[in-house]
Design a protein that fits this description.
This protein has 267 residues and is an all-alpha fold. 70% of the residues lie in helices and 0% in strands. It has ten helices and no strands. It has helices at 3-9, 14-17, 45-64, 74-92, 105-132, 139-143, 149-184, 189-207, 216-237, 240-266. α7 (149-184) runs antiparallel to α8 and α8 packs across α9. It starts with a helix and ends with a helix.
């Protein structure tokens, strides 16, 4: 992100600057979310609508294009990321990069911290939901480690790309909702963040319904609950790389466990 974007995102807005959360939630570094209050550029309702449609189109490519193996799966996974980001770039010009900021050492620590928190929260929620409602298995976890070394490498690369796409899938609607609640509905910044945080988690959980055999409790409570934690990483840092990093660390840790178990069973 260039210096003009940085200055714009740090520009003072009376309602925005006076309604930050405490240090446990938001860093007190004057950085702010992009677009919702016109910095570094304002987006119209039509532009936000196009951006969200692009997010949905990327998701449609991910689920509609056949993935017979992890090499072919790289195509829909790349489209899942590429369609919304290219669209956002066309809408905002160079300002789309405000989503992806420079990563510093403390950001890396934040990635690992939120990944660990997410594992704990997800495990607890899965235990509760599994006891009350039962849970469906994850096909990706079951298949991990069954292929060749190259196929497994493609699996890690592809899932890494997809997980960045899942952050884009969540954060573009999150920012669109913030823009509506703050700019149109004239709600406070804090209220806009909380509403966008909750609604975008429901959006994310709904997208996982087919993955978990339409188990609503699992999709909305376990996956939606995990999404709330990961979105907090973005709320804290305003950096999509950080929430993506936390998501990748979390999922790759689970995938690696599955790879080791499945490889041992094959042997």
């Amino acid at each position: 992100m260039d210096s003009s974007d940085t200055r714009a995102l740090r520009a003072s807005d009376t309602r925005a600057s006076g309604s930050r959360f405490g240090r446990l939630i938001e860093r007190h570094d004057e950085d702010d979310f992009p677009f919702y209050n016109g910095a570094p550029v304002a987006l119209s309702v039509r532009q936000w609508t196009v951006a969200v449609i692009a997010v949905a189109a990327g998701y449609a490519a991910l689920v509609a294009i056949p993935q017979p193996n992890n090499f072919v799966a790289l195509i829909p996974r790349t489209l899942f990321v590429g369609i919304p980001l290219v669209t956002l770039a066309l809408i905002t010009r160079d300002h789309w990069r405000a989503l992806l900021r420079e990563v510093h050492s403390r950001d890396v620590r934040t990635m690992f911290g939120f990944a660990l928190l997410n594992i704990v929260v997800s495990f607890a929620l899965a235990l509760i939901v599994g006891t009350l409602f039962g849970v469906a298995s994850n096909e990706a976890m079951e298949d991990a480690g069954h292929g060749t070394a190259l196929d497994t490498a493609a699996f890690y690369v592809g899932t890494g790309i997809q997980l960045v796409g899942e952050e884009v899938f969540t954060m573009v609607p999150f920012l669109a909702l913030m823009s509506f609640f703050f700019g149109r509905a004239k709600l406070s910044r804090r209220t806009a963040i909380v509403l966008a945080w909750l609604i975008s988690a429901l959006w994310f959980g709904a997208a996982h319904l087919p993955t978990y055999d339409w188990n609503f409790a699992q999709a909305f409570i376990v996956i939606g609950g995990a999404r709330l934690v990961l979105t907090l990483a973005y709320i804290r840092t305003k950096n999509l790389w950080v929430s993506s990093g936390a998501h990748i660390i979390n999922d790759w840790a689970l995938f690696t466990q599955a790879v080791l178990v499945n490889s041992a069973l094959i042997a």
